[in-house]
User: Which sequence fits this backbone?
């Protein structure tokens, strides 16, 4: 699998996530709000997203790769306070069946989270590494496997006739427990709307939610 290029006709990740806009949304079930997200671009050029209404500075931090082909995950938390730096030791990319996996070259040991240009076919990413609190906290071992599916028609109870990409992610770690799987879910992102268009979690318990509101600020 090539790790460069991608089909421009399929769109770009920022068109679906809206990470380069001051965009926000809520997701839930019926009249119940399960969560809220909001993007902003930092003066450093990083893209950050917050998932907590009560702690707006607790953010995941991303940056473009040097060649512009990838969005890289640096970590999450509050810079200068409690920040969890995530670094990979091995990364591979392959087809949508997670076969034909090939090593990805390191870029500051940051995780290759998603391709910027969306290819016409699905692809798999498998990263292993460590998470450490910025000020010398404990080290957590993790594995993050993702399968990204190409654009397809989608809809939910609030927004009809949309186009989505889907992330199927599985996460393993040893954070205060033996190394084990801790998450398995599928998340849809809708073009022009953003994150959490639909969430279907199968592990550790079944749970679903979908976007109910979207706005710019």
Assistant:
């Amino acid at each position: 699998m090539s790790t460069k290029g991608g089909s421009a006709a399929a769109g770009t990740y920022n068109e679906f996530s809206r990470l380069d806009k001051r965009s926000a949304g809520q997701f839930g079930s019926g009249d119940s709000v399960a969560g809220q997200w909001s993007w902003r671009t930092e003066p450093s050029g990083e893209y950050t997203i917050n998932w907590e209404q009560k702690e707006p500075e607790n953010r995941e931090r991303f940056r473009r790769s040097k060649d512009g082909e990838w969005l890289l995950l640096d970590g999450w938390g509050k810079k200068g306070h409690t920040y969890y730096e995530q670094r990979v030791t091995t990364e591979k990319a392959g087809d949508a069946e997670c076969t034909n996996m090939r090593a990805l070259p390191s870029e500051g040991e940051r995780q290759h989270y998603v391709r910027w240009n969306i290819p016409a076919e699905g692809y798999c990413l498998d990263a292993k590494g460590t998470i450490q609190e910025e000020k010398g906290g404990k080290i957590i071992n993790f594995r993050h496997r993702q399968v990204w599916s190409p654009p397809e028609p989608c809809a939910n109870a609030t927004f009809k006739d949309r186009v989505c990409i889907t992330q199927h992610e599985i996460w393993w770690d040893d954070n205060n427990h033996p190394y084990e799987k801790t998450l398995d879910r599928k998340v849809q992102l809708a073009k022009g709307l953003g994150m959490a268009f639909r969430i279907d979690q199968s592990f550790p318990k079944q749970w679903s939610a979908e976007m109910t509101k979207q706005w710019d600020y």
